[in-house]
Amino acid sequence: MLSTPNIIATSVACVSLALAFVLTRFCLATIRPKDYPPGPPTVLGLGNLSQIPLKQPFIQFSKWSKIYGDILGLKVGPSNLVILHNPQTVHQLFSKRAAHYSGRPYSYIPNEHVFCQHADKHILNLQNTPYLRKWRAAVAYLIGTSGLKQVVPMQEATAATLAKQLLNTTPSETLDYLKQWALATPLLAITGQRLEERGKDFSNRFFQAQKLWLELLEPGNAPPVDMVPMLRWIPERFASWKTDARYVRDYMFDEYASYLESAQKLSGKADVATPGQNKSTRFRCLMTKILENEVEDGRGKDGKLGFSPDQLAYLGGGLLDAAVDTTWASMMSLVLYLAAYPNVQEKAHEEVTRISPGQSPGGDNLSNLPYIGACIAEIFRLCPPAPNGLPRILDRDDIVDGYRIPKGTTVLANVWSIQRNPDDYDQPDEFIPGRYLNHPLGLKKGADDTDKRATYTFGAGRRLCPGEAFAQNSIVTAIAKLLWSFKIEPAEPLDLNIETGFHTGLVMGPEPFKVNFVLRDPKRREDVLRDYDVCQTALAGFGL
Ligand code: HEM
User: Fold this and answer.
1) Mean pLDDT, to the nearest integer, of 142-156?
2) Which conformational region is residue 527 in: left (phi greater than 0), alpha (psi within -120 to 50 degrees), or beta?
3) Do residues 312 and 290 make contact, with C-beta atoms less than 8 angstroms apart?
4) Are the CB atoms for 286 and 316 separated by under 8 Å?
5) At which positions is heme bound (predicted)?
6) What is the DSSP letter of 488?
7) How far apart are CA 183 and CA 181, in angstroms?
8) Complex ipTM above 0.95?
9) Which residues, 6 or more positions from 456, have their beta carbon under 8 angstroms from its beta carbon?
10) 171 CA to centre of ligand 1 in angstroms
11) Burial class of residue 381 (count of CB atoms within 10 Å of its CB; 0-12, 13-18, 19+)
12) Which atom, in ligand 1's list, is nearest to the CA of 384?
C-alpha cells in the first residue's frame, strides 16, 4: 500500500508528465512539417504566429513570397497555413482539385456561439457536401447572369433613390447613403423587403451585427480560443466576445426569420395586372422563387430543390450578409478613385451621356458602358474587399509542385498580391482602367494568360462568389446614374494608400473620406427626381 505522501507525489508526477507530454506535442506541432512549402523560420511553441501582422497581413505574405516562393508555407501555432501567390496554382487547386479544396475551416466561436443549431445551414460554414451543391445550384440560377433580368428594375430603383438622396447631402453623409444603397438592393431582391419600410432601426441593427460579426471572424480580435481551448470557459463578463457573438446570433435568429416571413407573404400574392402586358408581373424575390420551387426547367418541381423553412431562412440571410459589406466597400473605393482621378471620371461621364443624352441611363443602355465596366474591373483589381479571399480547408494530404501539404491545412489565395504582379500588369499600383479595354484580363502585352481570370476578387473554383454578376450590375447601374447627374469632387485631400487610407479586417474598404456630389447642371435636379418617380412606378408595376 502507498502512503498518502507517496500517493500525492505519484499523482503530481503523473500530472506533470501528462502536462509535459501535451506541451511537447504542442511545441513539436509548431515546427514546419517535412517537405512543407517554404516560409520564414518558425519559433518553437509559436510557429510564425508572432511574425504575422494583424493589420493587412497580405502585404507581409506578399513580401515573403518574393523570398520563399509563390506557395508560401506558414505555421500558425500548431496549425498549417498555405498561401498561394500565383493564378495557375489557384486554378490547379481551387478548380481542378476542387473536390479536396472546397471546405471551410472549423472555428469555435462562429460554430458554437453564433450559428449553434444552424451551423449546418449557413453558407459561410457549409462544407463540401451535397447540400452545398444544392444551395449553390438554387442561388446560381437566380442571381447568375441569366436569372438577373428580373432584378434589374430593383437595382435601378435603389440607384435612383441614391441619386435623389445625394441631391441634398453633405460630404460627411455621403458614405452613409452609399451604405444604405448597398443594403437596399440585395434586401429587396433576396428577401422582398424594402429598406424604406424596415426603417432606420433595422438598418442600424443590420450594420451593427455585420460589424461585430466581421470583428469576431478577424484573426486577432477575439482571444485564440481555437488554439487554447481553456479560454472558452472564461465567464462572459470577462469575455466581451461572448456578448458580441450573442448579438450576432440574435440578429440572425430574428431577422433571418423575418426574411422568410416576407418571402412567404410574397408567395401568396396574386399577380399584378399591368396594362399592355399579358404576362404576370408579380414580384417574387429570390427566396420566394425557391419557396415556389420555380427554378430552371422546373428542376425544382421534383422536390430536389426543396428547402426546410430554417434552411431557407439561413440561405436568404447568409446570402444577404455576404452581399452588403463587400458591395459597399467596392462602391466606396470606386467613388474615392473617381474623385481622385478627374480625367477618368470625365471619360466615364462622357460615355454615359453619349449613350443616354437626355435622361438618366437605364434599361439596355446600362449594358453598353465598356469604359465604366473597365473602371469597376480596375477597382476590383486594386482594392479587393477580401484581399486574402476566404479560407479553404484541405481534406486529404496533397502534393503540390513537389511540396507536401498535410490534410487539415488552411489554404488562402493572396488576391491582392496576384492582382499587383508586375509580370502580369503594367504599372500594377496605378489606377489605369484602360488596361481592361486593351486586354480582356487587363494583362500587359506578352503576359501569359493560361488559366488566368479577369479578377480573383470574387475567389475561384467551386466556392467562387455566386453574387459576382449581381454586384457588378448593381455597381454599374448606380455609378452610371450618379455620373450622369453629378460630378464627384474631393472635399478634403484623399488618401489612396492601401496601408494608410484603407481599414483592415475581413472586408477591406477605404477609411472614411469626404467628397461632394455636385450637380453637373441645375436642370439635372428635375431629371433625378423624374428618374426616381419612373423607377418607383416600375416597382409599383411589380406589386411593390
Ligand atoms: C463586390 C462585391 C463582392 C465581392 C468582392 C465578393 C467577394 C466574395 C469572395 C472573395 C468570396 C469567397 C470566394 C471563395 O472562397 O473563393 C465570396 C463568397 C460569397 N459571396 Fe460574394 N462578393 C461580393 C458580392 C456578393 C453578392 C452581391 C452576393 C449575393 C447576392 C454574394 C454572395 C456570396 C456568397 C453566398 C458567398 C459564399 C459562397 C460559398 O461559400 O460557396 N457576394 N464573395
Assistant:
1) 82
2) alpha
3) yes
4) yes
5) 465
6) E
7) 5
8) yes
9) 87, 90, 384, 389, 413, 415, 418, 419
10) 29
11) buried
12) 5
> What is the length of the chain?
544
Show Cβ contacts of residue 387 under 8 Å, excluding neighbours closer than 6 positions.
56, 58, 414, 415, 416, 508
Question: CA–CA separation, 351 vs 484, rounded Å?
Answer: 9
**Is-contact 84 411, C-beta < 8 A?**
yes
Q: What angle do CA 35, 40, 45 make, to 5 degrees?
A: 85
- Write a three-state SS string for 251-285: HHHHHHHHHHHHHHHHHHCCCCCCCCCCCCCCCCC
> How distant is the alpha carbon of residue 379 from its chain centre?
15
Q: Which atom belonging to ligand 1 lies closest to the Cα atom of 392?
A: 15
Residue nearest to ligand 1 atom 20, measured at CA? 465
Q: How large is the C-alpha radius of gyration of the chain? A: 25
Contact (Cβ atoms closer than 8 angstroms) between residue 143 and residue 286: yes
Whether 54 contacts 383, CB under 8 Å: no
The whole model's pTM is what?
Answer: 0.93
Angle at 33 between CA 28 and CA 38, to 5 degrees: 125
CB 256 within 8 A of CB 316: yes
Average pLDDT of the residues in 276-301: 67
Residue identified by cell 474587399 is 385
Q: What is the pLDDT of residue 228?
A: 84
Owner of C-alpha cell 451543391: 133
Residue 510: the pLDDT is: 97
Query: CA distances (Å), 332 to each of 121, 177, 210, 384, 464, in order?
Result: 31, 11, 17, 12, 23
Q: Are 334 and 375 in contact (CB under 8 A)?
A: yes
Handedness of CA 122, 128, 134, 137 (dihedral sign): positive
Q: Cα(359) to centroid of ligand 1, in Å? A: 33
- CA 414, CA 287: separation in Å to the nearest integer? 33
Specify the residue with its C-alpha closest to ligand 1, atom 8: 458
Residue 375 among known ligand-binding residues:
no
